[in-house]
Specification:
Low-confidence stretches: none
Distance between the termini: 17 Å
Number of domains: 1
Mean pLDDT: 83
Strand content: 15-25%
Oligomer: single chain
Radius of gyration: 15 Å
Largest sheet: 3 strands, antiparallel
Structural class: alpha+beta
CATH class: Mainly Alpha
CATH topology: Arc Repressor Mutant, subunit A
Order of helices and strands: EEHEHHEEH
Number of helices: 4
Helix content: 40-55%
Strand order of the largest sheet: 3-5-4
CATH superfamily: Winged helix-like DNA-binding domain superfamily/Winged helix DNA-binding domain
């Protein structure tokens, strides 16, 4: 299945794939226990602004939260639950 977004450019549609899904970003944060924007830039080849935007959207959705150390982000309880759900869903697909 393809992930992506449709951009409108001068009346034409242009498709651009996402570089990192929510699940991939949450997995990275879980793996490192705390992640920075630079971790996302390095792992997913995002721009600084793109990585910051991805974290902002996850924060807005209640999946990540800023930690005491400035610039680091960690998973919330909801983020952990959502990641566990998505990983379990992938495991069920592999078994079929």
């Amino acid at each position: 299945m393809f992930r992506g977004t449709t951009l409108f450019k001068l009346g034409k549609r242009e498709w651009r794939p996402y570089k990192a899904s929510k699940k991939e970003v949450l997995s990275l944060i879980e793996e490192k226990e705390a992640a920075t924007i630079y971790d996302l830039v390095e792992r997913f080849d995002l721009s600084y602004k793109g990585a910051a935007n991805r974290l902002y959207l996850l924060h807005k959705g209640g999946l990540v939260q800023p930690l005491l150390q400035r610039g680091t982000w960690g998973l919330t309880r909801l983020g952990e639950e959502r990641l566990t759900y998505w990983e379990g869903k992938d495991d069920r697909r592999k078994r079929k």
